Amino acid sequence: xxxxxxxxxxxxxxxxxxxxxxxxxxxxxxxxxxxxxxxxxxxxxxxxxxxxxxxxxxxxxxxxxxxxxxxxxxxxxxxxxxxxxxxxxxxxxxxxxxxxxxxxxxxxxxxxxxxxxxxxxxxxxxxxxxxxxxxxxxxxxxxxxxxxxxxxxxxxxxxxxxxxxxxxxxxxxxxxxxxxxxxxxxxxxxxxxxxxxxxxxxxxxxxxxxxxxxxxxxxxxxxxxxxxxxxxxxxxxxxxxxxxxxxxxxxxxxxxxxxxxxxxxxxxxxxxxxxxxxxxxxxxxxxxxxxxxxxxxxxxxxxxxxxxxxxxxxxxxxxxxxxxxxxxxxxxxxxxxxxxxxxxxxxxxxxxxxxxxxxxxxxxxxxxxxxxxxxxxxxxxxxxxxxxxxxxxxxxxxxxxxxxxxxxxxxxxxxxxxxxxxxxxxxxxxxxxxxxxxxxxxxxxxxxxxxxxxxxxxxxxxxxxxxxxxxxxxxxxxxxxxxxxxxxxxxxxxxxxxxxxxxxxxxxxxxxxxxxxxxxxxxxxxxxxxxxxxxxxxxxxxxxxxxxxxxxxxxxxxxxxxxxxxxxxxxxxxxxxxxxxxxxxxxxxxxxxxxxxxxxxxxxxxxxxxxxxxxxxxxxxxxxxxxxxxxxxxxxxxxxxxxxxxxxxxxxxxxxxxxxxxxxxxxxxxxxxxxxxxxxxxxxxxxxxxxxxxxxxxxxxxxxxxxxxxxxxxxxxxxxxxxxxxxxxxxxxxxxxxxxxxxxxxxxxxxxxxxxxxxxxx
Length: 762
What we know:
alpha/beta; seven-stranded mixed β-sheet
C-alpha cells in the first residue's frame, strides 16, 4: 500500500447518507483541512489497531516522536493488542507486548476479538492488571442482559478538553474465539452501543458522565482500503455502512480496526453538516494514525480536522533522548533476547518457503485464496492424530486461514526454527476431531462464502491433500460447491467422515457453523502449536507443493454422451503462495483415459464473487466412444500438479470400470495420507535441503512444462486428443501416447473385483 495518506472527498459518501436513518440535526459541522486555524484548540489523538504484539523499536520511535511533537496527545487503540502474536510475544504470554504499550503510554483501547483468546477471566484479570490502559467494550454485556461487562468509555484530558473514547467490538467475536472464552457474555450491536453511550455523554447530566468531544473506537471496519472508496466499501459491507451512516452525530471521529486495512476517509455526518474522519491504520504497527481535531471552545464544537496515517520508520538519533522510546526499546531488547534462547532450536528443513497466499501487492495473508501453508497444516492434523496411540481414523483435515499468522521461510541453509514454527499458530488451541456426514462437509465448504455482513466476504479453508473440490462462484448461495472428491472418489452424502482441526474451527468458529451439525467433539488435549512443531520434525525435509485442491468450473456437466463433444471452462489452477509458478497446461481424463491437453492462460479475477481465480483453461474434447455409466472427469495441471475432478454419467457407450481419479493416490483412513516428503529425519542434520526434483512432489520450475506426477504429464496424451496440441520439452503430444497407454493397461490389469459404482452425490 502507498505510504501516503489515503483521502477521499466527502462526496463519496453523500448517496449513502440517504440510508442513514433519521437523526436530530447535529451541531457538528467539521471540515478536513491541511492545517488547523490558529484560534482553535488542537486535540491530538494517536491511533493504532491490530497491533498483535508486533513490538519494534521502529514503532516505539514513531510513537515517541509523535508525542514529542504533540505534547498533549493521547495514544489510543482499536483493539487486538494481544493475541495472534509472533513468537517473541506469544512465547512469553504476551507480557512483553503489554509492557511495550505501557511504556508508550497507551491510555484507552476498545477490546478486540483476540483479547478474548484466553478467556474473559484472563482479559479482566491478568491482562488488565498488567496493562496501564483501560479496555473498553460498550457492546459487551453480561449474558442475556444489557448490563455492561466492561467499561464503556474513558474520558481523557486532551489539551484541557474532556475527550471521551467509546469502545465497541465486532459482533462476530463469539465466532472467532473458543466458546469457553466468551461463555456468559452477549455481544450487542456496536453502533447502537456507541450511540447509547455518546448520548449520555452529551446530555448535560453530569451524573451519567459528560464530555466535550466524543470519539469512537470500533474493532470493526471496511473490508478493503488502499485505493478503495468509501462508497464502494459501504456497498460491500452492511456492517461498515452502519458504522458510517448510523453512528450518532455526537461522535466527532471514528477509529476502526479488525479488517487489517489502511484508509482515511471523510464521511458525511448523519443528520448534520460537514464531515468526520473514519480511520484505520493497517495492522502489525506499520502505521500510526495522527488525528488533530480543531475544537472551538466558545461554541463547544469540532469545526476542523486533519488526519495522517504516518508510516513507521527506523529509529532516529533524536529518539534516544525520549523517555518513552528508551523505556519501550528496553522492553524490545529484553523480550527478544529471551525469545531468541527459546526459539533458536532448528526443528526442520525445507527446500523453499511455505507460505500463506499473497495479496496483489505481494504482502502475506490473503485469506480469500488457497495456500500451501494452510493445506500443510490441515495435513499435519490428520497425520498427527493418526499416529499410534492417538485418536486415529482421521480422514480429513481442515484449517482456517485466520489462524495462520506467520510463514515458514527457511534460511540460506534450509533451516526452520522453533520460533518460526511456533509463530505460524500462536493461539495455543487444542486439536480436536468430529464426525460429519458428506452432506455436512459440503455445507462447510459452502460456508467459505461468509454470511452477509461479515467483515470478510470469503475465507478459504486449508484441506488435507486427499480432498479436492470444484465450485461455481456464480451460482446462488448453497449451490456453489459442485463436486467433492475424497481419496479420488466422489463424496457420499450419507457417509460419516472424521475431520480434525483446531478447537476454534471445529466448534464452528469463523462462521463455519455447519461443523456444529456433526457429532460430539473429541478433544485430543494436544496443543496445535506443539503438535505442529512435532509434525515438522517428523516430516523434515519438506518441499513446498504448489498443487491446488479447488478449481472453479463453469458449465460443469453432470451427463455426457459417448462419442459426443463436451466443453467447459476451468479456472484457478495457480496458487499465490510465495514461489508458486504459473501452470502452462492441463491434461483432462475421462475414467483414466486422456482426452486432451489444453493450454492454461494467465488470468486473474480480483473482484467479487470470491475467490479470485488465477489461470484459466477452455476445455473441449470428444467423450471416448466406449465410455459408459458412472465416470470421473479429472484434471492434472503442469508443472504444479494441481488436480481435481467431478463425477458424470455417460450414456451410449460400452460398460466401464468403477470410476477412480488417476491423479490421486488413495489414502488409508487408519493412517492418514502418506506424504513422500515427510520421512522423519534429524532436524539438526547437516544434509542439504531436499531437491524437489528428487521427490515425488511436482517440481516448481516455471521453465519446465512437464509434471513429475503420474497422469498429469501434459506430454502423455491419447490419440483421441481433440484439444490444442502442446509441445513440451520438444515432444509432441502424439509421441507420448505409448507410455501412457501402457501405464493404463498395467493399472487396469492390477484392479481386482469391480466394486459398486459411486453415483454423483454433490
